Task: inverse folding
């Protein structure tokens, strides 16, 4: 069976800085993978490489057996949010409709088939009502729900979700994670879901892909979120404490994942920062 | 004699009508992309272009199209790096006006035209210029008809558009070239300093009144047309400067739309 995503000895650089060094792993079709790692570890860069937006310096990045390239059908993508939305009052529905055949020349018009695909995607996430309101007036959770609907248009085989939980409260976070998990299972979609805190994804993901120090480790949560592996990925001694069904990743007395989360709230507007 | 018995009034109505429709539609994209200030700066670059052309003995419109077109492409290609930064744009704007002043200084007989360039003189548009405006306008609308869909997508969701394989820098550069052409045309009507009045006022008003993009573009074109022609009529009967009348209508419509839009939401 062909892997959904496969990196072989891949080295990926952004603006002259090597972000991932000789990385290799394979994500099987239908897996729900949590993508974690400290800020700047290369989560966004990895997603961009899978989309064909960051070519490997050496090695290979392939998606369903073919080299990663932009414009491939079957890939849904939710970029990391860093704007307050458009200045104009476009409805949520019209906003996500711009992505439908958005790379084709012509005027922005929808065919009957386009509208049907849009309605189907909105129904899948239960966002028909939300979609009627202006996009720039929606809450963070409502926007993410709509953008997930957008990424489902055309029934993709692979979903790449870059920090969809940022600036959501814990209840909304849980809703989004469960929504994606249920969709992935029922539609047999492979999902790469980047997040700051492993606890947000516990119970939903099949395996975790942890990035750090230019390296990547893919495996079950209990095998990857361990002191030796994380110490290697963070490049400093890390302690892992499991208690009450939650996992705390500590560096000295500091909780590093929670810190990373707070840090990103303060600088939520940087572009492709990680 | 009635207003339309004068040849220059007929030309003025035709010229301002063409420019208003194009400026209204281009303006909706400009507002959507958050690049209104860049559009304003382009018109000042046009001032330098027009005065340099005067110095070289070429038609000011040609100089304006050439220089704003070049600046538009540069802004588009530089993209987010400087293309959308207020300080960089502001300095380019000041620099362009400064150069315009220098060129005027060496071409003193051109100085009488400075006011027309800065504030427009739609009543003096020649039939030759009218033909150029018609070609510029038609070309801009055709180009927007081709790139409209990808441009809107890239404007609202650049990361996603890039992932779908759209050359977003190139699209930005093409769009800024169209803005440059529209600015050059608008300057013939309302002048360098008042291009906002046709390019941004109607578009911003339309986007407060309707939410569909197509409806906003149509309404912006209609508002711009009404403001331009209304301004001409008022100017004809009051003898006030036409550009003032258009600016006044544009301001009234924009602030009116703001109040209506705020009440509705």
Result:
């Amino acid at each position: 069976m062909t892997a959904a995503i496969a990196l072989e000895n891949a080295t990926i650089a952004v603006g002259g800085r090597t972000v991932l060094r000789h990385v290799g792993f394979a994500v099987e079709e239908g897996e729900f993978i949590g993508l974690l790692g400290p800020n700047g570890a290369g989560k966004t860069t990895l997603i961009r490489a899978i989309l064909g937006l960051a070519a490997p310096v050496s090695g290979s990045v392939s998606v369903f057996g073919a080299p990663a390239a932009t414009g491939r059908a079957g890939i849904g993508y939710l970029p990391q949010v860093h704007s307050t939305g458009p200045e104009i009052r476009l409805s949520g529905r019209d906003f996500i409709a711009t992505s439908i055949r958005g790379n084709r020349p012509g005027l922005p018009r929808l065919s009957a088939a386009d509208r049907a695909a849009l309605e189907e995607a909105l129904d899948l996430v239960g966002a028909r009502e939300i979609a009627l309101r202006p996009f720039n007036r929606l809450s963070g959770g409502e926007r993410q729900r709509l953008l997930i609907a957008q990424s489902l248009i055309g029934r993709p085989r692979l979903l790449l979700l870059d920090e969809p939980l940022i600036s959501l409260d814990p209840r909304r976070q849980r809703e989004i994670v469960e929504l994606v998990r249920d969709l992935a299972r029922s539609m047999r979609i492979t999902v790469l879901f980047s997040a700051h805190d492993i606890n947000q994804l516990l119970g939903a993901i099949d395996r975790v892909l942890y990035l750090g120090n230019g390296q990547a480790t893919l495996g079950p949560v209990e095998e990857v979120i361990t002191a030796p592996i994380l110490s290697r990925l963070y490049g400093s001694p890390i302690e892992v404490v499991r208690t009450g069904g939650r996992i705390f990743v500590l560096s000295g007395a500091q909780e590093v994942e929670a810190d990373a989360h707070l840090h990103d709230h303060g600088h939520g507007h940087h572009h492709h920062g990680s | 004699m009635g207003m339309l018995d004068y040849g220059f009034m007929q030309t003025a109505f035709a010229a301002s009508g063409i420019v208003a429709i194009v400026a209204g539609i281009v303006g909706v994209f400009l507002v959507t992309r958050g690049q209104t200030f860049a559009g304003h700066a382009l018109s000042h670059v046009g001032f330098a272009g027009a005065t340099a052309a005067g110095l070289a003995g070429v038609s000011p419109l040609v100089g304006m199209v050439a220089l704003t077109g070049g600046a538009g492409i540069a802004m588009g290609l530089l993209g987010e790096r400087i293309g959308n930064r207020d300080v960089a744009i502001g300095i380019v704007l000041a620099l362009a006006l400064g150069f315009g002043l220098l060129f005027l200084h060496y071409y003193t007989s051109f100085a009488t035209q400075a006011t027309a360039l800065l504030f427009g003189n739609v009543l003096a548009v020649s039939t030759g210029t009218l033909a150029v405006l018609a070609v510029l306008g038609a070309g801009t609308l055709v180009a927007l008809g081709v790139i409209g869909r990808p441009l809107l997508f890239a404007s609202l969701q650049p990361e996603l558009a890039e992932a779908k394989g759209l050359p977003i820098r190139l699209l930005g550069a093409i769009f800024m070239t169209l803005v440059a052409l529209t600015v050059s045309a608008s300057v013939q009507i309302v002048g360098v300093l008042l291009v906002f009045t046709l390019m941004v006022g109607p578009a911003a008003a339309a986007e407060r009144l309707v939410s569909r993009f197509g409806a906003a573009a149509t309404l912006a074109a209609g508002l711009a047309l009404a403001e331009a022609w209304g301004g001409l009529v008022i100017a004809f009967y009051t003898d006030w400067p036409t550009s003032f009348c258009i600016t006044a209508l544009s301001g009234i419509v924009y602030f009116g739309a703001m109040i209506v839009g705020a009440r509705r939401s």
